[in-house]
Every structure is written in C-alpha cells, then in structure tokens.
Request: fold
Amino acid sequence: MTIQVNGESRGIGDGHTVAALLRELDIRADRVAVELNLEILDRRDFETRSLREGDRVEILSFIGGGAE
Amino acid sequence: MDTMNDRLVIAGREFQSRLWVGTGKYRDFAETKKAIDASGADVVTVAVRRVNITDRSKENLLDYLDPKKYIILPNTAGCYTVEDAVRYARLARAAGVSDLVKLEVIGDEKTLFPDTAGLIEAAKILIKEGFIVLPYTNDDPIVAKKLVDIGCPAVMPLAAPIGSGLGIRNPYNLKIIMETVKVPIIVDAGVGTASDAALAMEYGADAVLMNTAIAGAQDPIAMAEAMKYGVWAGRLAYKAGRIPRKLYATASSPIEGML
Reply:
C-alpha cells in the first residue's frame, strides 16, 4: 500500500504500524513526534497504531533554531 | 555575590544560567556544542521540523545536546498563525520530554515582530492544555501584562528585531515591563554584542536569550564566552546597585590634608 511520509509517497507492507515504519526509516522513536492525518500520536501508541492506504504521516524532530 | 547561587526560577523550575542560547545558524553540531559550552547556558532553544527521511546519515542535534544535561526549549519559530503555533507546540511536546514552549506567533516576514494578538490567543489555548508558555513578545508593557494575566510564568520581550544585532532599542519600555509584571523577564532577540547583554541585565532582566549574536560572530566560541561574562557583569551590577547620574563632578579624593 502507499502512504505519504513527510510529503512524499512511499510504499509499505500492509498492516505496518507506526513503529515498524520508524524502524524501516531508521528513526529513533524517542526523538520524534508523529502526526497521523493531523492527529498527534502518543509515543506509547506507535507499536499498536496501524497504517492504512493513503494515510498522511508527518515525522518531526528538533533541529537547530533560535527564532524566526 | 555568588553567581552560582543566584538561581532563576520559572514555574517552579530552577535554571542555572541567565544566558539562554539558540542552536541555529552554526556551521555544524560540533561548533554548536562548543559555543553552548563556552556560553555556560543550560537552556537551549530548538526548532521543530520534518525529519529528513531520504538521508538518514544526517546527525541528530540531540546526539550533541543531551536532554539530561540541557533544558531543551522548543520554539514555534516560523509560525505565522495561531493554528500553526499551537500545532507546533503540541508536536514539540510530543517529540520531547517537557511542557515548556517558547511561543512565537510571527506577524511579518520583514521585521519578524510578534503578532501579539495571535500570541495571546495561542498562549491561552496552550496554557489550558498544561503547557508552560514562555511568550516571545514585543516591548509593549500592556501586552506583557496581558500575557502574565492569562498565566504565562515569564515573558520574553525583544530588544530589537530577531537577528538584527541592534541592541536594546527601547530601554524605557523594558524598564516599565520590569516594573509592571512580577514574573521573570527574559530579553529575547536583537542583542549584538556583550555590552548589549550586560545592559539588559543591568536594567533588571532576569535572563537574556540570543542566537545570531553568537552564531553569526566571526568567532562564535569566543563570543559565546564574552556573552557569558556580559550577562554575569550586568547581573552583578544590577544587584550591586549603580550610583545615580549627576551633571557635575564629585571628588573621590579627600580635600582634607592638602597643603
């Protein structure tokens, strides 16, 4: 199935969870926020939350910044 | 006075350093880390952005800034609407470990001045959700008072536009803010060099937050150290109490005993 991750299309296996997606992308779950179809997920739900065709996933983390 | 025991407390949290620094605009993370260490700051601001999923070799800022050692203060930089600022604050909380947020609602690209009406609105929403909101605001005492009235435990008025290096453009307004509100004041944005930081502290600011003045200096590490001493000097002078200004001289050597 195909989902959108940070604005880009990506094919993943059916029934993939958010945690599985993060592992596939080699991203540490404890350092990111995940928004699924505009809903911000609790980190504790990453393992159980399944992704569906067409889902829009945003993965964000902290970067250098002061203001602007 | 012992600077180590002169602690700043905001919303029950104790802060060791009165110099807070941003982490943007450095050449790399190694330089960021060196500058922060030289500044002595224990509060560092960070932005929240999409993870680069195509190039996972990129290092993570938190590999260099251990959240156990530094207080990570996420900002909502780049947000021009209440909705965006609230969304980014929530994302920051989800990505991090605390309820702290440096709230920015920017009003205009050219000046990066805060949209204070939007700021108050966003602050109300986030405070209701349990956030500790530290608002980046302009040097308007009335807005500062409103922010405190709705529950902000500190206010962060600007010295000058972000990244401008102009120094404190309106010291009288800052002084009025310091007299008007009873919460800590963190002067945020616009300082250019160490004397600007010292002045802010002499006026009675509780802390100073800066990024560009350090990261953009020719030698950021040396400037970070200069800023540390600037903030210390200003704080000590404020606590010591300066002499009043007078138009005419007063001799400091006694007349008695002269020939």
